[in-house]
Amino acid sequence: MIPTILRRLAFSALTVWAVVTATFVIFSVLPEDPARAVAGAQARPADVARIREQLGLNKPVLARYALYMKNLVRFGSAPADEDPAQTLRLGPIRVDLGVSYLKRRPVVELLGKALPPTLFLGLCSLMVEVGFGALAGVIAAARRHTPFDWGVVAITLIGISAPTFLTGLLLQHLFARELMLFPIDGYGTTAPEKLRAVVLPALTLGLFGAAYYARLVRDEMITLLKQDHVRTARAKGLSERAVLLKHTLRNALLPLVTVVGLSMGTVIGGAIVTEKIFRWPGIGALSVDAVFERDGPVVMGVVILASLAVVGANLLVDLSYALLDPRTRRQ
Amino acid sequence: MRSTRTRIELVLPPILLCVALGCRSSVAGPIGERREVPPQRGGTLHAATYVNVRSLDPAVAFDVASSALEGLIYDQLMGYDENGKLVPQLAETVDMSSDGKRYVFTLRPRVLFHDGKELTASDVKRSIERSLHHDTPCPVASYYERIVGFAAYHDGKAPELTGVEVAGSRAIAINLSEPDATFLHVMALPIVTPVCESAGRSFQRDFTLRPCGTGPFRVLEYNPNQRIRLERHQGYWRPGRPYLDGVEWQLAVQTFVQRVKFERGELDYMRDFSEADSVLYRSSPAWQGFGEWEQPLNVYGIFMNNELAPFDNVHVRRAVAFAIDPRVVESVYPGHITARHRVIPPTLLDPGSDAIAQSHDLGRALEEMKLAGLAYDPVAGKGGYPKEIPYLAVVDTFAQQAAEIFQQQLAKIGIRIRIELLSFPSYLARSTRRKNALMGYVGWNADYAEPSTFLEPSFASSSILDEESMNAAFFSDRTFDELLKKARRSTDALERDVLYRRAEDRVLEEAPWAVTYSYRYFELWQPYMHGYRPHPVLTQYLRNAYFDLEQRRARTRGDSPSRGALAAFARRGRGAPATTLALSLLGASR
User: Measured between CB atoms, does A174 come within 8 Å of chain B?
Assistant: First the structure.
């Protein structure tokens, strides 16, 4: 088991390095000069040149890449000239993601501020997704070919098809503008305010996911309900509830765990559209601003964080298989 | 029968959905009434912006969103009065030497920073040096290049900016290497505003989180991506000002959300409208008198590369200028787009009654094509320029729509253009590279309120570079350069205006651009807000606003006509029948 984990860890590190390198290269070959984005479209060439020099963008791409990778992860005690605000310390490891070109703040600080709102929103939306999705899927499978089943199929079709910007605007219009039940946007400052503020963005994200999960669980359950062991359970005289919960649902959870696990990884990357619509100060909003403003260090920081999260979630999902399915453990 | 039923089935659900969601094609009315009241103190103004504010550090912030807030937090040596005239602000007097190369600013007495310290001439020098320091990423440092010693100081080769002298505790002298008509205008930019000692001697990245200046408001909270809260600076040098207790500026708010908040009275003032909302508010009788257009300090046009055929021929350029009819573009986006015939906005330079202008004249356009040896017969569709000309435009912008109109207009004189849609970075890279782009969209926003901001970057020979050329038309004209140089050096305002006018006329005659239109914003405020109207020069200059506090209380009493369906139901009383609740919830409450 341990060699497998080590092998997977090494492969994960390689994946993150490849993603980081690819992002760096892509951002370096794009036509726009980040110094121009900082200085403004109308800035004089002399001012742009000075800012380019200050940002270190006058150096060759390879030199910039080498410098970035050198500063990215370092070990041991910090030198005297190192800016502590710019570095994230994880025991003996020091991570320096640089300074935002436009916001002029350390990227670790920007990510540190944006991560909690994103995690909060992500977890709330996952609760909506799994809660609504799994429940609707199980009931629809149990009542196959009934109006409830058709309703679930129809609603999930709409849920999957509707883009989040549309769902978000509709929810804002109905629940914030017309009914005034929830704030129309923003993050709030106190815990109760934050709880109220998260409802609409979590629903926006969650409804899409719930529709997907409902379909997944329903289809999986329908397949399982035709299996021999389920027929045997029924023949034994078990109640339908026991058949569903004990003999079918647990098996149906395996693909659900895979998808939820992978979703948790992507949650860290932020929900770009939803965060923008609801003015949610998370990673998604930060990253979309950074991409449009050609803020390379912030984009790199988000990519590193998101790729670590996705790779980590993949690893955890693989390991969780061993717990849920004894056959995998034996392999 | 079956087809009727099918039609009903198709039409009914969207209608029901629309009713349920409260779809309306009208806007909620204003909150409170407009009464003539004297200025009174109190209240917090709520405003919002669609974009984020990059920074509140005046040394680096030079975008529109930041400048609106800087107008509340900082005062400069120079400012603009309500008519847009340049006047001393923190300076009590400004004396210029006879050769126009030395300015002495005498500071007002008892001007206090937000930290309570008194402003001195040393603070002014320190603040200017901070912004122009080698390590400060100031985007417009070169505007101050005529200050003696600028190059050495900005390059980090001199410890101080020798051209800026402390001539007494309240007197600061600035020496220029040559007379410069733009100097007092660039001294009105927040870039060189006096800042507290906590700002440091060069750029400090934490200063943006706790900015400190001498303006009417001080920063209480700066929460990037969320809001900025300001409170009245109690030690402000103007007695009784500002009237407002504070300002809350919400950041990155979607236009739809801004409208909802404005309807509810959660915003007192609004500028970022969707196109549809802008039309609705402007056409609503209830809102007449509570909104106004900003003066557009920008100009858009079509650049023609003077170094490449066929635009190396002045007759072809003139033909294009005559063929373009910007009134058609104006009709596509009425109100926001206004047709333009000269480069410099009339706010900055009165063109005079006998001014020449580029105007649509198809006959003269065909005549110019003939003079260029490219005669075109519009009836037979023969002649004209034989090759297709690539035209650069930025994708998904109004420039794209305008390009499609220009394509049709130019076809009438035998010029066929092929529109190349590019992202803004790609457009910028292509259009500013020498001998690369033939023609395309071009625009310019005033960086400061002086005519040369429109002439020098876009048309002066000195603005031509092989890469990153600001002069996209690569227009080089000795007569124009001389006129511009004389105007900038002139210390006589009347003479300067005449020279600028002649320089602009020269551009219009030589037609490196076909001037097309300006874009302007519409601003709207609730009736209880007084003391504000769009400033001729400054964006969202809200520092003099005040409230009719009694009328403003209407919004907290719930008198707003748009308080949501549940609130509407609550106002109708608990005894209302169920149908009333249903209608309320279905959005029929208004």
Answer: yes
